[in-house]
Amino acid sequence: MPFSVEEFFRVFADYNAAIWPLQVVAHVIGLAILALQRFPSRGSDMAIMLLLSAMWALNGIAYHLMHFSAINPAARLFAMLFIAQAALLFAAPFIWRGIVTPARRGAMAAVGLALALFALAGYPLVGLMAGHSYPAVPVFGVAPCPTAIFTIGILLTGEQKAVRWLLIVPVIWSVIGGSAAVLLNVPQDYALVLAGLAGLALLARSFTRHRSALPQDH
Question: What domain count does the chain have?
Answer without folding.
Answer: 1
